[in-house]
Design goal:
The complex is a heterodimer of chains A (403) and B (369). Chain A has eight helices and 34 strands. Chain A has 403 residues and is α/β, with parallel strands linked by helices. In chain A, the strands form eight sheets. Chain A has a seven-stranded mixed β-sheet. Chain A has a seven-stranded parallel β-sheet with strand order 16-19-22-25-28-31-34, with no helix packed on it. In chain A, strands 17-20-23-26-29-32 form a six-stranded parallel β-sheet, with no helix packed on it. In chain A, a hairpin with a 2-residue loop joins strand 6 and strand 7 (97-98). Chain A is globular, with a radius of gyration of 22 Å. The mean pLDDT of chain A is 94. Chain B has 369 residues and is α/β, with parallel strands linked by helices. The radius of gyration of chain B is 21 Å and the shape is globular. In chain B, helix 2 links the parallel strand 4 and strand 5. Classes of the chains: A alpha/beta (403), B alpha/beta (369). At the A-B interface, strand 16, strand 17, strand 18 and strand 21 of A face helix 9, strand 14, strand 15, strand 16 and strand 19 of B.
Chain lengths: 403, 369
Amino acid sequence: MFPKQEVVAMLLAGGQGSRLGALTKKLAKPAVPFGGKYRIIDFPLSNCVNSGIEAVGILTQYQPLVLNEYIGNGQPWDLDGMHSGVNCLSPYQAVDGADWYSGTANAIYQNISYIERYDPEYVVILSGDHIYKMDYNKMLEFHKEKGAACTIAVIDVPLEEASRFGILNTHKDGKIYEFDEKPEHPKSTNASMGIYIFSWKELKKYLVEDEEKEDSSHDFGKDVLPAMLDAGEKMFAYPFEGYWKDVGTIDSLWEANMDLLDPNVTLDLKDIYSRNPMMPPHYVSSDASIQNSLIADGCNVYGNLEFSILFAGVTIGKNATVNSSIIMPGAVIEEGAVVQYAIVAENTVVGKNAVVGEKPEDVADRDKWGITVIGANTTIGENTVIKAKEMIEGNTEVNANEK
Amino acid sequence: MRSNNVLGFIFASTLDEKIPELSASRTMASVPIGGKYRLIDFVLSNMSNSGINNVGIVAKSNFLSLMDHVGSGGAYDLSKRRSNLTILPPYGGKTFSSYVETIYNMHGYIENSREEYILISPSNVVTNFDYSNVFDFHSKNNADITLIYKHGVVPGGYDRPLTIDVGENGKVNQVFIKPETGDEEVNQFYGSVLIKKDLLMQEIRNSLSLNQLDVKRIIQKSIEKFNVYAYENTGYCAAISSINDYFEFNMDLMKKKVRDELFNPKRPIYTKVRDDAPSKYGLTSSVKNSIIAQGCVIEGEVENCVLSKGVYVGEGAKISNCIVMQDTKIGCNTNLNYVIIDKDVTIKDGRSLMGFDSYPIYIAKKSVV
């Protein structure tokens, strides 16, 4: 018997995140390292804890090993309670067969029994690919105040970018009358943040109905939410102010990391919890030069660093230069190598005098430049040149003479 | 290996009186060191990594910071069904100045534990050491007592160093108390010893009945009665016995060889975790030859320094040869040289503080300069 929880959070973490290419080859997107010591999932998980949510189900499907291991018993987030906490929920076999999660709504549908153990009034649906800090409690209060069946968090985006988002058109009081997925001519600038609060009774009804529709793709955005709106359910948009970024692409992931170095960006990392590697403080040598960068424990810096983020245990060799780049845990940039506008994944070695990525001549001209990505456990041989926008798959070896 | 037969027993207040500034509100064991650690992290991690499951820490006074730091021992993997960490405050409210009385005072804890052997250790030694080798050595030699020693110059704070003459086979030939050693390299015993629990308690009771409370004399005499062996710690090993030792050890961390040895990833040093963000270097920062923990924000110049968690260094600040403990704020345009700054200190803008190589000055916890 589980004590009742007013709110249960369900975190959708099963997507492949194919737009992150080499970075998600062996890793679910929410487990992608972010911000020098975190993984993307630390943000929604920490938000849950800081909002007082004690029961969190994480729906996993694609490459769950690292994610499962990272979440573990949930202790770093205080989600290791005796009767509640965090659980990784993967697809399972049952008497009447076994199914992969066929869509976001189906993933929740298959775990109705998990949710009902806690007999909740409300369910929060979150996704594992956004960087933001938010008090879900305030949103829940809004939801209760409006007597809504569903509340969707929205953020005001610039009009010229609105056509990249799912736009919610609302009445003055916030009541939603239309969903507009990536509209060519947006009527408003309220972009959905992929954060939903449902009254559980209503959600359950629509999940069960949706499951019976053969033509449904069992997706929240495409199927469940429109069905609720068509049926005349009270659905509201909750306006959120603050930093929020979808990090589903290489460019946006890189930008969100760089935002941490921008004094004008309001996101601070206080109260974001993560697993901490057992490494000593980092060392900066007499030859090093470091400007505007973030450095985690266990690093050894002998070279030059500008506008970059070093995760735990990274080594930057003598006379190496790292500029506007993200270097993930355990990577080594050897002597004289140059890494610019690049993401170097875990445990990769960039050999002596190799050159990875290019510095754009004009940063504003986004067509001409891009971020170079080197996958995990890869060796870039001495003197090898990897150009802008290139993506090197993980677990490989690239040498100058082969190129 | 999680099945060994040795009880760990640590004295938290080793040489507290030798670092009165740092131990004003804490024990030697909980002195912050190396940017993110407390002294006891080293011995506790070594014990845990050597497979010791059960550790008692004798706390005499000022042990709030110690209790806060080690907690239930989870950080060292010592809080499991089959592993334990116990803080042993004065039993019956009594504190003793001699080891003999202190150990006797804890006889209930020692005798009730299921282990057959006991490994006694001070808390002021920084090393990365595998005790299981000592146990194998002890068993192989059929020893009654094995002393762990370090070959080197005696650190300045030891008033009555205990040095030993070791034969080729590792047997102790002679024990000296307070020899005139000067700069000579000797085999010094810092207080780590492996012995059977029964034998220890028997000797403690004997000594008490004879009113012999000087543990060094007892060790000196023991070679007449028992098989006493000595095992050398050949790795990096620093005993903190004065504020100068403390300063020197922190500066030793700038050497790659020392860091590689102390922070061997196969035998990690554990500590209580704090959720600090990675350290942030500003546009005007310049950092040379320094150890920096997480959560720092650096806008100024830092050279030959150890900065703990959450330290702030303002723009235009110049700090050299300093050890700065956690959450201290160093204001803009300050100038500090050879200063040890305790926790939560505020150095206001424009201040200058100068110590000297052989005489670093100390700024107490929560001071405002």
